[in-house]
Amino acid sequence: MKDVTFGQYYPADSIVHRLDPRTKLLFTFFYIVAIFFIKSPLGYAGVAVYAVAIIFAARIPVRTVLKSLKAVIFLLLFTMILNVFFYKDGEVLIEFWKIKITVEGLFFSFTMALRLILLVMGTSLLTFTTTPTALTDAIEGLLKPLKYIGINVHDLAVIMSIALRFIPSIQEETEKIISAQKARGAEFDTGNIFKKAKAMLPILIPLFISSFRRADELALALDARCYNLSDKRTKMKILKYKKTDFAALFYALLFVGLIVADRIFLVNIDIIGLLR
Amino acid sequence: MEIIRLENVGFQYKDYEGNVIEAVKNVSLTIDKGQFVAVLGRNGSGKSTLAKLLNALLLPTEGVVTVFGRDTSDADNLFEIRKNVGMVFQNPDNQMVASIVEDDIAFGPENIGIEREEIIARIEWVLKAVGMEEYRYAAPFKMSGGQKQRIAVAGILAMKPEVIIFDESTSMLDPEGRGEVMDVIKRLLKEGMTVIFITHDMNEAVEADRIIVLDKGSVVMDGKPETIFADERLPLYNLKLPLVTRIAKELKDGGLPINGSVTRLEALTEELCRLL
Ligand SMILES: Nc1ncnc2c1ncn2[C@@H]1O[C@H](COP(=O)(O)OP(=O)(O)OP(=O)(O)O)[C@@H](O)[C@H]1O
Ligand SMILES: [Mg+2]
Questions:
Q1: How many angstroms separate the CA of residue B232 from the nearest CA in chain A?
Q2: What's the pTM value of the predicted model, to 2 decimals?
Q3: Is the interface score ipTM higher than 0.90?
Q4: Cβ distance B102 to B123 under 8 Å?
Q5: Concatenated DSSP letters of A83-147
């Protein structure tokens, strides 16, 4: 658990860190859309180059970024294997028993994996370079128009900030409960899947109870700190777009251009045919 | 100068079965500015309930609580009262709202509408006051209990309250953490802060100017530490002697002609030197 870096802030002084969090959020949004829309290998290559360039600009060690992939490695292998084995069409490479491995299947599973890797890299890049508070501020800033339809955006932002804040606490708590139950002789790693699921119950129940107690205390603490007592609230951090933000948004538009180009021109290039 | 006044105050909880629990019964007392008041009493004696009555987290079901001459039951006073009576809770983890120290400290001041520049100045000042200057951009999650609790104190301090209530705020800390928090409190007292300190630790209580003992919701003792710890009713309320007093008493019972009810180490040393 401890060495998974996904979703953690990596403090550094870089142009990406200094960008307005709203810019980064929008950027990430475009990025994710791109990953799902892009179809051609060349398009993927484009996105990958793009992502790597930003990682360098953010001055985040490649090792740290790779570590963030650790969290999804199982998912990655799993989808890859499934894709390789169950892709039916195309030219057969190997065939045994009921399983056919095709060139297209290999290719497809490879692009799927790449897509997942790019997705995780992009989103963890956002959390590496943006503090949770800045992220909440960004969401609050971008969602501000919602207040005209009666949604209290500030409350939403506080809820999110608290949720982010409590993730590590609850993780820690879970580990504590697991150790405590193990000390009482509980076994979590043996038996079939149903036995394992049943073994989780003595973890979940104490976790729920303690989370409710936490929530209770937290509510008091919020009241004691004058939360929502007056409408003349202020903000310490004011978000302001700078020149670099406009530059970044321009790049984001380039991205959109890339997607469009990919869909119109590049999809039709037959890479497998070219390789042959 | 009197800042808190309770007149025949009572508070009843209703549990989920509709049973009435009298947590505080007919309490009348006043607290002066600059006082350091320790509140003692066994589990369930009503200490936390009393504390919550002082900053309008609970409203008395009988009697009147006034803070700076303002009735806590009047909703118009809520803002002024909460702003001026800060509260630090037992578990430092459950009173933090943000993932970064400075954002957490800014929460209270933002809620009461302090200007941006002033908040930034206050953050520097309170971090210095609790001796945590270098942690401004750190994540509380990775800190020790004592450090977290000092950040919690800083968060309250940044609202510039007149009174701070500590509800067993040191009970989850190791001796070192307790010492750290105690040092901060002593510094605040020097600057004129009024401190109400709920504890189960007699060695902490002796530091106070005044001790209030609660039992079954009523005030059963109220006086200077020396008077309280000389009282033979102590065991009745499940209270033990602080270390210094215990040593003095043992020495006296052993035949030494000394004052057996001293509470401070300096006083005991003095008594012993007198004998030489
Ligand atoms: N939310 C609640 N609902 C119902 N009863 C409550 C509630 N909170 C406290 N009580 C009851 O009120 C009484 C006083 O509780 P309180 O928490 O004030 O005691 P305390 O002196 O702070 O105890 P401790 O030393 O354990 O913190 C207890 O009998 C308790 O069970
Ligand atoms: Mg209590």
A1: 36
A2: 0.82
A3: no
A4: yes
A5: HHHH---S-EEEEETTEEEEHHHHHHHHHHHHHHHHHHHHHHHHHHHS-HHHHHHHHHHHHGGGG
